[in-house]
Design brief:
1 helix, 5 strands, about 20% helix, about 35% strand, alpha+beta
Amino acid sequence: NMKDLLPVGSVVLLKDATKKLMIIGILQVKPDEDKVYDYLGVPYPEGYVGAENNFLFNHADINDLIFKGYTNPERDIFIKVMDMLLGQHKE
């Protein structure tokens, strides 16, 4: 569900992982797979240290939510628009 997606800035620990990730993007496409992932994350606390250290993952891969990022009405509108666009795309 689109409304369940965590906001940018959230810090999570994936299943079977020891390193935390901070979410820097949602609904990201991996071009060579033409697949949409729920999140793009970078190591925490380091942050972005190069494209080779970016991680695509889905909500189901998250074991623990360490910190929930900032949300406001602007994000709520973004989520509604993305939900509408993706809903139309699936039909």
